[in-house]
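Our consortium's second objective concerns turning raw sequence data into structural hypotheses that experimental partners can test. To show how far this objective has progressed, the report includes one record in full. It was chosen at random from the queue rather than selected for favorable results. The single chain below, 320 residues long, was entered without modification.
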Amino acid sequence: MSYEPSTLSHELKSGASSTIIKQRGEAPCSFLKAHHSSLLYFSTFAAMNEEQCASFSNKLQEIAKAPKYRGAIFQIEADEKGLALVDVKEASLKVYLMIDPECDKILETRFFTYGGPIFTALADSFCRRIQMATIDDACKITAESLEEELRDSPDVRAIPETAPEIKQMNNLIAKLLEVYPEKKATAIIVREKMERIKYRTQTAEGRAEADAEWNALTKAQKIEKIEEWLHQTVRGTLQGDGGDIQILDLTEDNRLQIRYQGACAGCGSAMGGTLFYIEDELKNNVYYNIIVEPEDLLANLPQNPNLPGLDDNNPPASMY
């Protein structure tokens, strides 16, 4: 899910999936930073005097005013599609490429910068040129060739020769090629994991296998397996926010009763985003049919507490 900084296309935490929750947990912050940077950029562009504008080609200025590829791509989007996300930064420019690791073709591109019209025009032109190209071919492009494309006439430069953005753009393109092998290897691993999760949770054959394995475990073994995964993934996330989780019981073979601790107890998202995140992690990685049930703190209160002042015939003293 790519977005323009002027559009908030990510909602706050919801129960779609643990991965979506992680993404949406980051989105508001990313959106605010991008939106603030966008305002800074357009303020800078608007403030350029005529002398500064005269040093740029008309083509560059038009692209800088209305770039088509400005935005961002999030890691979670690439993971869910089984694609590699290469995102590199040089100076004030960051470029995002989503690449198919099977054929090394670039399927989607975005960039973000608050550095001004030169970076904006160079990056937008670069993103346009590399659509559906291989990463090798994309990295053969130079900032000099992009500058030539931005000229109004072949013999008049679009960008001053002394502009530092030319060298910085070349550095960024070189970084893309450097980091891709590692990103590709990670994407292949994630793709295999996602396919395994899909098989175990969304196919009849996979669910049958999961049922057989789960039913072969004792209750203690099931709780141990759940605890191991909670410790491996979920607990660290909760503890990072000052919270934690405790397993109370496993009933009816698949209903996991938990108790929130620390900051998680009474947190507004404990029954929403946090709960969906925990349950989704366990469904995808332990057993697809697990249901997570937080402890009901009101369940242990007396049914008819003998509290003075709550009876109609015995109103509180403050009412006299």
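The partners drew two points from this record. The beta strands are 84-90, 93-100, 105-113, 243-251, 255-262, 291-294. The domain at 18-187 is CATH 3.90.1010.10 (Sufe protein. Chain: A). Both points have been shared with the crystallography group to help prioritize constructs.
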